[in-house]
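Support case: iron/sulfur cluster complex. Customer-provided input:
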Amino acid sequence: MTNSNENFLKELHHPDVPVPEGMQSAVAVTSFGKLIDSIYNWGRRNSIWPMSFGLACCAIEMIATASSRFDQARFGMEVLRASPRQADLMIVSGTVTKKMVVPIVRLYNQMSEPKYVLAMGACAIGGGPFKEGYNVVSGVDKYIPVDVYVPGCPPTPQALLHGLIMMQKKIDGQSFGNRNSMPWYGRGPSEEVPLPVLGPDIVDPRQAYLLRRETAASDAVAGETDASA
Ligand code: SF4
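Agent response - structure generated as follows:
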Protein backbone atom coordinates (compact mmCIF):
# COMPACT_ATOMS: atom_id res chain seq x y z
CA MET A 1 0.00 0.00 0.00
CA THR A 2 1.40 3.43 -0.92
CA ASN A 3 1.93 6.27 1.54
CA SER A 4 -0.88 8.31 0.01
CA ASN A 5 -3.33 5.42 0.46
CA GLU A 6 -2.20 5.00 4.07
CA ASN A 7 -2.71 8.72 4.72
CA PHE A 8 -6.13 8.54 3.05
CA LEU A 9 -7.18 5.73 5.41
CA LYS A 10 -5.74 7.49 8.46
CA GLU A 11 -7.71 10.65 7.63
CA LEU A 12 -10.87 8.55 7.36
CA HIS A 13 -10.58 7.13 10.89
CA HIS A 14 -13.27 8.27 13.29
CA PRO A 15 -11.49 9.92 16.26
CA ASP A 16 -13.85 8.26 18.77
CA VAL A 17 -13.16 4.72 17.54
CA PRO A 18 -9.66 3.51 18.39
CA VAL A 19 -7.99 1.29 15.78
CA PRO A 20 -4.78 -0.58 16.75
CA GLU A 21 -1.65 1.12 15.43
CA GLY A 22 -0.65 -1.83 13.24
CA MET A 23 -4.02 -1.95 11.48
CA GLN A 24 -4.40 1.76 10.70
CA SER A 25 -2.84 1.41 7.25
CA ALA A 26 -5.28 -1.37 6.26
CA VAL A 27 -8.57 -0.66 8.07
CA ALA A 28 -10.68 2.47 8.38
CA VAL A 29 -13.56 2.84 10.83
CA THR A 30 -15.49 5.92 9.82
CA SER A 31 -18.92 7.51 9.61
CA PHE A 32 -21.13 7.26 6.52
CA GLY A 33 -21.01 11.03 5.91
CA LYS A 34 -17.23 11.16 6.07
CA LEU A 35 -16.93 8.17 3.75
CA ILE A 36 -19.26 9.77 1.17
CA ASP A 37 -17.41 13.11 1.42
CA SER A 38 -14.06 11.38 0.93
CA ILE A 39 -15.11 9.36 -2.12
CA TYR A 40 -16.94 12.30 -3.71
CA ASN A 41 -14.08 14.73 -3.11
CA TRP A 42 -11.47 12.16 -4.21
CA GLY A 43 -13.26 11.86 -7.55
CA ARG A 44 -13.54 15.63 -8.04
CA ARG A 45 -10.03 16.55 -6.94
CA ASN A 46 -8.46 14.13 -9.41
CA SER A 47 -10.47 15.19 -12.44
CA ILE A 48 -10.37 18.99 -12.45
CA TRP A 49 -10.71 20.25 -16.00
CA PRO A 50 -9.25 23.76 -16.46
CA MET A 51 -10.59 26.08 -19.11
CA SER A 52 -8.08 26.77 -21.86
CA PHE A 53 -7.76 30.50 -21.95
CA GLY A 54 -4.89 32.83 -21.20
CA LEU A 55 -4.59 36.58 -20.96
CA ALA A 56 -0.91 37.58 -21.07
CA CYS A 57 2.65 36.44 -20.27
CA CYS A 58 1.50 34.25 -17.35
CA ALA A 59 -0.40 32.13 -19.86
CA ILE A 60 2.93 30.94 -21.32
CA GLU A 61 3.85 29.50 -17.91
CA MET A 62 0.42 27.90 -17.67
CA ILE A 63 0.97 26.27 -21.07
CA ALA A 64 4.40 25.04 -19.91
CA THR A 65 2.72 23.46 -16.88
CA ALA A 66 0.61 21.35 -19.21
CA SER A 67 3.65 20.21 -21.21
CA SER A 68 5.54 16.95 -20.64
CA ARG A 69 8.25 18.41 -18.39
CA PHE A 70 5.84 19.47 -15.63
CA ASP A 71 2.93 17.28 -16.70
CA GLN A 72 -0.19 18.45 -14.90
CA ALA A 73 -1.80 15.27 -16.24
CA ARG A 74 -0.35 13.65 -13.10
CA PHE A 75 -3.15 15.40 -11.22
CA GLY A 76 -5.91 14.46 -13.67
CA MET A 77 -5.92 18.01 -15.08
CA GLU A 78 -4.65 17.45 -18.60
CA VAL A 79 -7.99 18.02 -20.30
CA LEU A 80 -8.02 21.76 -20.93
CA ARG A 81 -11.49 22.42 -22.24
CA ALA A 82 -12.29 24.91 -24.95
CA SER A 83 -15.79 25.51 -23.58
CA PRO A 84 -16.65 26.97 -20.16
CA ARG A 85 -19.59 24.55 -19.97
CA GLN A 86 -17.16 21.61 -19.79
CA ALA A 87 -14.64 23.21 -17.41
CA ASP A 88 -14.66 23.47 -13.63
CA LEU A 89 -11.50 25.52 -13.09
CA MET A 90 -10.77 28.97 -14.45
CA ILE A 91 -7.06 29.86 -14.30
CA VAL A 92 -6.92 33.64 -14.70
CA SER A 93 -3.41 33.82 -16.11
CA GLY A 94 -2.41 37.33 -16.99
CA THR A 95 -3.35 40.97 -16.97
CA VAL A 96 -7.08 41.62 -16.54
CA THR A 97 -7.93 44.69 -18.54
CA LYS A 98 -11.14 46.62 -18.11
CA LYS A 99 -12.17 45.46 -21.56
CA MET A 100 -11.53 41.77 -20.80
CA VAL A 101 -13.10 41.61 -17.35
CA VAL A 102 -16.59 41.58 -18.89
CA PRO A 103 -16.01 38.41 -20.99
CA ILE A 104 -14.16 36.84 -18.02
CA VAL A 105 -17.22 37.26 -15.80
CA ARG A 106 -19.46 36.02 -18.61
CA LEU A 107 -17.29 32.89 -19.03
CA TYR A 108 -17.37 32.34 -15.25
CA ASN A 109 -21.16 32.49 -15.28
CA GLN A 110 -21.24 29.95 -18.12
CA MET A 111 -19.16 27.38 -16.19
CA SER A 112 -21.17 24.67 -14.51
CA GLU A 113 -21.09 24.13 -10.75
CA PRO A 114 -19.02 23.21 -8.83
CA LYS A 115 -16.50 25.68 -10.22
CA TYR A 116 -13.29 27.19 -8.96
CA VAL A 117 -11.05 30.14 -9.83
CA LEU A 118 -7.28 30.35 -9.51
CA ALA A 119 -5.70 33.81 -9.87
CA MET A 120 -2.25 33.32 -11.39
CA GLY A 121 0.31 36.09 -11.17
CA ALA A 122 0.58 39.60 -9.77
CA CYS A 123 -1.63 41.06 -12.52
CA ALA A 124 -4.60 38.76 -11.88
CA ILE A 125 -4.22 39.12 -8.10
CA GLY A 126 -3.92 42.91 -7.84
CA GLY A 127 -3.07 44.57 -11.13
CA GLY A 128 0.68 43.78 -10.91
CA PRO A 129 3.04 46.21 -12.61
CA PHE A 130 0.03 47.85 -14.27
CA LYS A 131 -1.85 48.51 -11.03
CA GLU A 132 -3.93 51.66 -11.28
CA GLY A 133 -3.17 51.88 -14.97
CA TYR A 134 -5.98 53.43 -16.97
CA ASN A 135 -6.96 50.12 -18.56
CA VAL A 136 -6.28 47.46 -15.87
CA VAL A 137 -8.46 46.27 -12.99
CA SER A 138 -6.84 45.96 -9.55
CA GLY A 139 -7.47 42.25 -9.10
CA VAL A 140 -9.93 39.85 -10.64
CA ASP A 141 -11.31 39.01 -7.17
CA LYS A 142 -13.17 42.32 -7.23
CA TYR A 143 -15.46 40.73 -9.82
CA ILE A 144 -15.48 36.94 -9.31
CA PRO A 145 -14.71 34.80 -6.23
CA VAL A 146 -11.12 33.50 -6.22
CA ASP A 147 -10.26 30.24 -4.43
CA VAL A 148 -6.47 30.14 -4.76
CA TYR A 149 -3.89 32.88 -5.39
CA VAL A 150 -0.52 32.06 -6.97
CA PRO A 151 1.81 35.07 -6.61
CA GLY A 152 4.71 35.88 -8.92
CA CYS A 153 5.50 37.78 -12.10
CA PRO A 154 5.21 35.32 -13.67
CA PRO A 155 4.77 32.38 -11.29
CA THR A 156 6.82 29.37 -12.39
CA PRO A 157 5.11 26.16 -13.51
CA GLN A 158 6.15 24.68 -10.15
CA ALA A 159 4.31 27.50 -8.36
CA LEU A 160 1.20 26.90 -10.46
CA LEU A 161 1.39 23.18 -9.65
CA HIS A 162 1.60 24.08 -5.97
CA GLY A 163 -1.51 26.26 -6.39
CA LEU A 164 -3.32 23.38 -8.08
CA ILE A 165 -2.40 21.09 -5.17
CA MET A 166 -3.78 23.74 -2.78
CA MET A 167 -6.95 23.70 -4.87
CA GLN A 168 -7.16 19.93 -4.34
CA LYS A 169 -6.73 20.45 -0.59
CA LYS A 170 -9.59 22.94 -0.62
CA ILE A 171 -11.81 20.41 -2.40
CA ASP A 172 -10.80 17.77 0.18
CA GLY A 173 -12.13 20.04 2.93
CA GLN A 174 -15.60 20.42 1.40
CA SER A 175 -18.40 18.45 2.99
CA PHE A 176 -22.03 17.58 2.34
CA GLY A 177 -22.54 18.30 6.05
CA ASN A 178 -21.56 21.93 5.55
CA ARG A 179 -23.71 23.53 2.87
CA ASN A 180 -21.66 26.73 3.05
CA SER A 181 -18.72 24.81 1.60
CA MET A 182 -20.90 23.36 -1.19
CA PRO A 183 -23.24 26.21 -2.15
CA TRP A 184 -24.20 24.52 -5.43
CA TYR A 185 -26.28 21.99 -3.45
CA GLY A 186 -28.69 24.68 -2.35
CA ARG A 187 -32.28 24.93 -3.54
CA GLY A 188 -32.56 26.27 -7.07
CA PRO A 189 -29.85 27.50 -9.42
CA SER A 190 -26.87 29.52 -8.17
CA GLU A 191 -27.05 33.25 -8.68
CA GLU A 192 -25.05 34.68 -11.53
CA VAL A 193 -22.29 37.19 -10.89
CA PRO A 194 -23.43 40.52 -12.33
CA LEU A 195 -21.54 41.62 -15.42
CA PRO A 196 -19.37 44.68 -14.71
CA VAL A 197 -20.54 47.91 -16.28
CA LEU A 198 -18.53 50.96 -17.11
CA GLY A 199 -18.53 53.29 -14.13
CA PRO A 200 -16.25 55.25 -11.83
CA ASP A 201 -13.71 52.40 -11.78
CA ILE A 202 -14.00 51.11 -15.30
CA VAL A 203 -13.45 54.10 -17.51
CA ASP A 204 -14.77 54.30 -21.03
CA PRO A 205 -11.90 55.65 -23.15
CA ARG A 206 -14.44 57.07 -25.60
CA GLN A 207 -15.32 59.57 -22.88
CA ALA A 208 -11.73 60.59 -22.18
CA TYR A 209 -12.52 64.11 -23.42
CA LEU A 210 -14.93 64.50 -20.45
CA LEU A 211 -12.18 63.53 -18.01
CA ARG A 212 -9.79 65.99 -19.63
CA ARG A 213 -12.40 68.75 -19.42
CA GLU A 214 -13.12 68.05 -15.72
CA THR A 215 -9.41 67.84 -14.87
CA ALA A 216 -8.78 71.18 -16.62
CA ALA A 217 -11.70 72.77 -14.72
CA SER A 218 -10.47 71.51 -11.31
CA ASP A 219 -6.91 72.68 -12.14
CA ALA A 220 -8.29 76.11 -12.96
CA VAL A 221 -10.18 76.26 -9.62
CA ALA A 222 -7.02 75.18 -7.75
CA GLY A 223 -5.01 77.88 -9.58
CA GLU A 224 -7.54 80.61 -8.61
CA THR A 225 -7.42 79.47 -4.96
CA ASP A 226 -3.60 79.62 -4.93
CA ALA A 227 -3.61 83.12 -6.50
CA SER A 228 -6.06 84.54 -3.93
CA ALA A 229 -4.14 83.06 -0.96
S1 SF4 B 1 2.08 39.01 -13.55
FE1 SF4 B 1 3.90 39.55 -14.75
S2 SF4 B 1 4.18 37.81 -16.13
FE2 SF4 B 1 2.07 37.66 -15.36
S3 SF4 B 1 0.81 38.74 -16.87
FE3 SF4 B 1 1.40 40.23 -15.29
S4 SF4 B 1 3.25 41.21 -16.13
FE4 SF4 B 1 2.95 39.29 -17.27
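The CA atoms of residues 149 and 174 lie 18 Å apart.

Case will auto-close in a few days if no follow-up is received.
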